[in-house]
Amino acid sequence: MSGGLPRRIIKETQRLQAEPVPGIVAIPDDSNARYFHVDVAGPKESPYEGGVFKLELFLPEEYPMSAPKVRFMTKIYHPNIDKLGRICLDILKDKWSPALQIRTVLLSIQALLSAPNPDDPLANDVAEQWKVNEAQAIEIAKQWTKRYAPSQPMPS
Amino acid sequence: MAAASDQPEGSYSAGRIEQLLRCPICLDRFKRPKLLPCQHTFCKSPCLEGLWGGYRRTIRCPECRMEHRVPIGGVDGFPNNITLSGFLDLPVLDTVAREPPRATPAPATTKCAVCGNDTDTRQCVHCDKLVCPPCLHSHMAQMKLGIGHLLRQLRDGLPQLTRSLDGATEWGEQTARRVSAARAAMTTAIDAKVRALRERQTMLNSELDSFVQQERRALQARREAVELDVASVSSFCDSAERTLQALDASDQADLVDMQTQCTEQLEKIRRAGTTSPHIARRVIYVQQNADQLQESIERFGQFQFNTGESSPAHARSGPDVTISDVPNPDIFFDLPDYGDITGSGTGRHDPPFQSPRLDLLSSASGTSLFPPIRQEAPPVPRSEETRVAATGSPEVFFPPLAVEPTQARDPQAHVPRRVRDYMYEMDTSTDDVRDIVDAMRREVLGPRRQGGGTLFTYDVRQVDPGFMPGAGDSLFEPAGNTEPGQNNSQSQPQVGERVDMEVDTAAAATTSQSDLPATMSRGRTFVQPSGARSAAVELPVVNNQSTSFNISADSGDGVRRRRRYDRDTAAVLRVLSIYQAKGRSDPVCTIQGSASCRLKWPRGVAVSPINDFVIIADSNNDRVQVFDSNGRFVSTFGSGGAGDGEFDRPSGTAVTSSGHIVVCDSNNHRVQVFDRHGHFSHKFGSEGTDDGQLSSPCGVAVDTSGLIYVCDRDNDRVQVFQADGAFVRVIGRGSGSERGRLLRPQYVAVARNNVVVSDSGNHRVQTFNAATGEALSSFGIEGSAAGMLRNPKGVGIDRDGFIVVADSGNNRVQVYREDGQFVSAFGGWGSGPGNFRGLEGVAVTTSHKVFVGDRENHRVQKF
User: Fold this and answer.
1) What is the pLDDT of residue B183?
2) Which residues from chain B sit within 8 angstroms of residue A8, using beta carbons?
3) Residue B87: left if φ>0, alpha if ψ -120 to 50, beta else—which one?
4) Least confident segment among B116-125, B281-290, B377-386, B703-712
5) What is the pLDDT of residues B724-773, one digit of tens each?
6) Complex-level ipTM
7) How far is residue B757's CA from residue B789's CA, in Å, rounded to a whole number?
8) Do A100 and B47 touch (CB under 8 A)?
9) Higher confidence at residue A150 or residue A142?
10) Which residues pair with B33 in a beta bridge?
11) Which residues on A lie below 8 Å from B24 (Cβ)?
């Protein structure tokens, strides 16, 4: 490994373990300290409530100067998340700032689940459905949550 | 771990303070904290330097996203946060160490952070991780190596110290030199003053001497005078006594005489007695301004010691010392004027203030520097017609003109401001008449929309009925043959006037879809009803065989110039009018797909050069559909997936000169090539940032030699590949906003060795040389006025060099010349014909038809 892990990543990892964000669990992978397995609990009052969604988060070489790469591993019905789990979130792209951290990114993703934004879709007919018939879309989201993201007891 | 814990908000504890002393980027204590103008602080390195990249002109604050210009010396030029440094310099408080540790203390058996074993772990002092002893040992060993490395670096750095020592010696020598120079200056100056004083002394002395001599002479004279008196009186006395004795009392006259003489002499003596004794003139030595002078002398001259910086040319050097002789006057002797009290020198000059860069200002703030296009031309009611009687051929009128005051100009930066002179030689064929009209249009400042017509302004003169080709005179001279009934004085636009020519296709009854009113045909004269702003200009038909057009007119400064247009240019002018007419009526056809095979989110559009088929990337259906040029369905191929012939959100399409279809398979980060029937041929590209790798490629184009240009959107560049997929080169110098750099380029088009890229993130279109990749030009700035762009997407270029841009942020299509000169714009937001919701790809056919991908309306429109 070239030079070892930057101090910031180590600090962030420590802090994530010492003080986890409520509803989010992020664990570094055993063999690669830049790769995190993340579990995000569906926020309350959202159609994803009760579900636990798996994400993967990767810190690229230039982190924190470049944004981490995050992806949903669990199938989810959301206008800003496509079928491959890619997330349309501005702070993951052009609005990234080195002052943001892993915890803030994950919090933003959790917030995105509470507040979908069908006006900024990701090549998605989910967005269309959301705009055309929101109630039905929410219903589908709930079903998918039940089917694909069954809640498990959260790891401590 | 202790220091990393959070304290409850609001408590003024060491922990909280420690938190505030933490850089948001490295999450560590600030090292060399630098203060940005937005008041946020970050470490100089590696945090700010990492953000700066070593080359950027501006950086964006990570906290508030405000953009700042980087000073000349890089991020080091930002001021140090001295306040914070004060806090940082304090010794670490004991309370910090005494904070209760949050995490489990060392002896607990937990997972080792490195090897994952469940053994008893210790806390590593270096990085606060919980590690088991063997891992700790290896960690320490690594640290040892690191330290050894550092030591080597130190040793290597020693010569640098020595070199700085040399610098010190040099410094000493320099000081000695400068001191001696200054001393010489001072000595010379003071010696000079001393000399002056001595001279003064000599002069005063001589003054004294002359005075003494004067007095002496005076004294001498006086003495002589007195002696003379004495002698005369005494001799008179002697003679008088003798005479008196000789005389007796009877000589009355003589006695009286004598008495008178005696009294006279007595008077003389008395006078001499009463005259005050001659007082010697006084001489005292006086010094004016003695105190002042004394002070001046005491303060006479001083040495000014500068620090290392060079002092610029010093204004006040005394008349006797040439400062310029001193090569490096860091120490210089400053001479006051005689009588100057302060005796201090002038100050140093500060480095000139650098004015902010306007181009950065404009791009950063995003405000448009150009006022919006004037929509309404203030009408100048004129009804005039000018005619020129052709020589033996029917007259041809121009469409009505409108005259407009010169002030009402809308300053578009890329539209030429001057109208050049032009003189017409007209051919009599319809085409050429058309071309002439276009040529006249061409010569104007550029088309502007006004109401239903397109206005062109140009300076025009009257047409001389007697014009013959080759004559040196301009066509336009005050003509006498205006229509009867017209106002003569108004019938001619004056020299230098702006004249609007309105090509109002709506006004002429028999207009066709294309550019010109039918009334432009040869042989017919027409008089447009003179509206409030109409006038007609007619040109003579003179030469049947001309293959060229001369255009000359007055450009307003009284100078006539002439230009020759050949047919090619005339043809270009014709094309110009075609583009200007677009959007005035409904699109020619709308492609939505068949009932069973509808388009969904169509993105890239391409036209085959062979058969004018339209190839559309049916993005959300993960397939490609082919239609003929009238919109009838031909075929479709492709399905969702990642294999050969499968797509994942195909975006850009292009067709080679042999009919092969090139498709940008955006989410599969590759490009696939199919034959003209849709059978898979080959593919290339994979996800990544290296040469030859792609990241969400969007647009694609091919040139006549078969080279494929792929717009590598997320890598901010355009890559060039051979037809078989071999990587050739990269176009675009990297991410950014400077010339030659790209930011989220979307689509690309290529024609005649020019690669046109829609530089979407920079709201502009850039042109590069296809062979060398050199940036040629760019046009467009962010905004909504005509000619401005917002997130431009699809680009198409036709063989005449007109560039069609899908201005997606403004929901319209704009057309430009290849030099960036705005031609026309059409379309708006909506679902009706001629409107768009979500513009994507654009393609231009050989007959100047434009196909536009209308994404959210799930259709492609043809204009």
Assistant:
1) 93
2) 25-28
3) alpha
4) B377-386
5) 889 988 888 888 888 888 988 999 998 888 899 999 888 999 999 888 88
6) 0.81
7) 13
8) no
9) A142
10) B43
11) 98-99
Per-residue pLDDT of B459-495, as tens digits, reads 333 333 333 333 333 333 333 333 333 333 333 334 3
Q: Which of B28, B50, B63 sits opposite A7 (nearest CB)?
A: B28
- The residue that leads in pLDDT, B394 or B140, is B140
Q: Does the CB of B22 have a partner CB in chain A at under 8 Å? A: no
Please enumerate in sequence order all residues whose Cβ is within 8 A of that of B564, keeping only pairs 6 or more positions apart, or say none.
Answer: B548, B549, B550, B551
- Average pLDDT for residues B137-141, to the nearest whole number? 82
Question: Which residue from B405, B373, B378 is spatially nearest to B824, judged by alpha carbons?
Answer: B373
Q: A92: which 2 tokens?
A: 């993951």
Buried b (16+ CB within 10 A) or exposed e, B390-426: beebebbbbbbbbbbeeeeebebeebeeebbbbbbbb
How many angstroms separate the CA atoms of B363 and B58, rounded?
A: 11
CB within 8 Å: A98 and B50: yes
Residue B619: CB atoms within 10 Å: 26
CA separation for the pair B629, B595 (Å, rounded): 19
Q: And the tokens for B492?
A: 């001619």
Residue B65 to residue A97, Cβ atoms within 8 A: yes
A88 an active-site residue?
A: yes
Task: Please tell me whether the overall predicted TM-score, pTM, comes out greater than 0.80 for this model.
Answer: no
Kindly tell me if the per-residue pLDDT of B502 is higher than 70: no
Across the interface, of B4, B129, B619, the residue whose CB is closest to A15 is B4
Q: Which of the following is catalytic: A70, A87, A88, A126?
A: A88
B383 CB-near residues (< 8 Å, 6+ apart):
B486, B487, B490, B530, B531, B532, B534, B535
B420 has a chain A CB within 8 A of its CB = no
Residue B155 Cα, gap to closest chain A Cα (Å): 21
Six-digit token string for B766: 């850039």
Asked whether the beta carbons of residue A7 and residue B51 sit closer than 8 angstroms, the reply is no
- Tell me phi and psi for residue B679, to 5 degrees: -90, 140
A135: closest CA of chain B, how far (Å): 22
Q: Distance (Å) from the C-alpha of residue A151 to the closest C-alpha of chain B?
A: 26
Do the Cβ atoms of A10 and B129 come within 8 Å? yes
The model's confidence at residue B435, banded by pLDDT at 50, 70 and 90, is low
DSSP string, B412-426: -TTS--PPPP-----
From chain A, the residues in CB contact with B117 under 8 A are: none
